[in-house]
Amino acid sequence: MKILLLDNIRSILNVGALFRTCDGAGFGKIVLTGFTPTPPRKEISKTAIGAENFVVWEYYKNPLEYIRSLKEQGYKIFVLEQTPGSIDFHAIASMDHEDICLILGNEIEGVQKELIDIADHCIEIPMLGQKQSLNVATAGGICMYQFL
Question: Can you give the pTM of this predicted structure?
Answer without folding.
Answer: 0.95
